Amino acid sequence: MNDQEGATPAEPKASGYSWYVLSVLVVVYILNFIDRQIVSILAVDIKRNLNLTDADMGFLGGAAFAVFYALFGIPLGRLADNWNRVRLLSIGLALWSTMTALSGFARNQLTLSLARMGVGVGEATASPTAYSLISDYFPKKQRATALAIYSSGLYLGGGVSLFIGAKVVQAWNNSYPGGGPLGLVGWQAAFLVVGIPGLLLALWVASLREPLRGAMDGVASPSSPRPFADFFADLSTIIPPFTVLGAARRGPVALAINLAAAAFLVGFAWIMIRLTGNLPQWSAVALGYYAVFSWASSLRSKDPATFKLIWGTPAFICTTLGYGLVSLTAYALGFWSPPYAETVLGLPKAELAFVLGGSGAVSGFLGVIIGGRVADALRARFPAGRILVILFGVVTPIIPIWIGYTTESAVLFYVMNFLAGMFGATALGAAAATTQDLVLPRMRGTATASFFLGTTLVGLSFGPYMVGQISDLAGDLRTGILSLIGVAPIAVVLLLYAYRAVPKAEATLSARAGE
After folding, report:
1. What is the pTM of this model?
2. What angle do CA 188, 360, 281 make, to 5 degrees?
């Protein structure tokens, strides 16, 4: 008998080039979050210069970006499943960097909102391509760790953005007290400084090699022969009125359901606009949720296997929504902690940017790396082990948030903010890896886009805005931030269900997909 007969195939391993690609992707993600989060440290200056409210700033820091990020993430996630991911990422990087730079020329809320929407469209290419690339460069046993390392760019970029933004504003306003070239003030110059380098980084990204899709899982996953036709078809499913035409092509029942969903969301938006007086926020939210509904309905018709493993899998939905509420708190704290420290505690911008930026980068990096490693270790022991790490990220920030945002001590505020950030960050790698494991390799880009719907249309769309709106109503930013504690019980319920449902869902992937 041949010694090799019946032997277990060698498990694939990550190569040195895999780690090089991961390092480049981390740099991209750092810039991604610098461009996304720099609005936070500039918020007080923008609010004063453009005469905006806290709710207006919550919209600019949240839904203005998030809705378009989420919506374009859907067709771009599908394009990442069907086209060259390296090219797609380099194009997206060039686009969002350009739109960040153009934010520096905004003169009112409308033009700044439009620029932030453009940043959202460009950044929608980042995570679907990166998650898919990482999943094809790293085997399953290292995937949560690799995704956690990639995700560390979120916290490093968010921290660096505070430091850069404060330094540029200070230096520019000192040099040009009445406005500099082209009449630009400090916060506008900051957008230009962080946007332009992305165009050079896009050339570096374009030099990476595209890996064989599905190689690490031993599952051949050929791409679509007509990726752009599929992309524009997907795009038409999220843009009204094409959404209505697409529903009509699927039949009278589909059309009636689509119109009913549109009517419900318009009515909901009208009520919320009447209650809050915030037209941009609720119009964007209604558009976002209607577009997602239309796209999911179309996906069910076009690709029932992918629909079943994403929208038809309660384990996937509960994991995504559970983590979405973690991200709601994280995005709200990330956006509002600098303005809170500046206006409520009276801390100087340069100091809080250095301390909050540095501590945010370190706490997030430590949390996401430790969380990823622990999640992989628990996953090796039992299939739902990663869910425990997400639960940890929900529950443990509560006490640091309460202490940090009720104290008058700057030192205690900084320490508690560090702990809240570190504890919350542990959940990201675990949640991302869980959703990747709940789909087949050919579906990973779409799964990533769907996962980020939770972090954006739930977390980013509502986190900064909710705090800003409650702050305006209560006349107290502290009250707005403390209201975040109220979302934890909902997240716990969702994740406890996911803990029970994940093992069976993962064990029945092929059977449920029919592939």
Report:
1. 0.81
2. 55
